[in-house]
Amino acid sequence: MGKPVRLGMLTPSSNTVLEPITQAMLVDLPGVSAHFSRFRVTEISLALPALDQFDNRALLEAAQLLADAKVDVIAWNGTSAGWLGLEQDRQLCQEIMAATGIPATTSVLALQDIFEALNITRFGLVTPYIEDVQAKIIANFARQGFHCVAEQHLNLRVNVSFAEVDAEKITALVYQVAQAQPQAITTFCTNLGAAPLVPELEKHTGIPIFDTVTVAVWKSLRLAGVDTSLVKGWGRLFADLP
């Protein structure tokens, strides 16, 4: 038996989706496990208290707890750089690596990697967020050369409520965005239960769909040296970018 591979995930305190989905994705990978460290997040908005939740000091403290478990990679499994700016996540990864010596990534940076690898410049965006947060995400991705051609959002701000959005609603939002025929669609929130729906949605729309929980797992496996094509049943990402 080879050396165990441990994936470390930084998790918003009120998130109830990303942990079970991450574990489900890894179930057929012997010797690969996921480990989680939480920090307080309860609201997603542009109000100062909500923005302060994502101060790098809180995430760094949680990352150092994961380092005690000798994980092989640390991922910020969250989307805050969407509205704070991608440089926020780049700085966070540098700080984590400097403090722990462990490779680091984030959901948003993984999504950027995928867009660049597949030459995606026109994308669709589905989130549960409020309008001004959605606008920030669109603007920040446009600065990186990725242009949102269709979007849907639910105007929710309480993080725990995102997990209560049912599969029927998520499916309807994706189908609405798909009408614009983007090159790809992202379901952009790690407390939204979209990842299990991706294979069926891709089949019916013909469009690759990149969920932010899924991309965090994909990038973490790559950084840990695990063949991502071994992950089956979670969408085209694992086959298109082995």
Structure write-up:
The chain is of the alpha/beta class and 242 residues long. The chain has two domains: 5-108 and 213-234, 3-Layer(aba) Sandwich (Rossmann fold), CATH 3.40.50; 110-211, Rossmann fold (3-Layer(aba) Sandwich), CATH 3.40.50. The chain contains twelve helices and eight strands. The chain has helices at residues 18-25, 48-52, 56-67, 81-84, 86-100, 107-117, 131-143, 159-162, 167-178, 198-205, 212-223, 237-240, and strands at residues 5-12, 32-39, 73-76, 104-106, 122-127, 147-153, 184-187, 209-211. It has a four-stranded parallel beta sheet with strand order 2-1-3-4, sandwiched between helices. Helix 10 (198-205) links the parallel strand 7 (184-187) and strand 8. The longest helix is centred in the middle third of the chain and has 15 residues, at 86-100. The protein is globular, with a radius of gyration of 16 Å. The protein starts with a strand and ends with a helix. The mean pLDDT is 96.
The radius of gyration computed from the alpha-carbon positions, rounded to a whole number of angstroms, is: 16 Å
Annotation, overall tally of beta strands: 8
Low-confidence segments, given as residue ranges, are none
Give the amount of beta strand, in percent.
Answer: 15-25%
For the record, the count of structural domains works out to: 2
What shape does the CA trace take? globular
Broad structural category? alpha/beta
CATH topology of the largest domain: Rossmann fold
What distance separates the N and C termini? 23 Å
The biggest beta sheet reads:
4 strands, parallel
State mean pLDDT (0 to 100 scale).
96
Task: Specify the helix fraction band.
Answer: 40-55%
Return the CATH architecture of the largest domain. Answer: 3-Layer(aba) Sandwich
Alpha plus pi helix count: 12
* Secondary-structure element order, N to C: EHEHHEHHEHEHEHHEHEHH
Q: What is the assembly state of the chains in this entry?
A: single chain
Strand order of the largest sheet: 2-1-3-4
Per CATH, the class of the largest domain reads: Alpha Beta
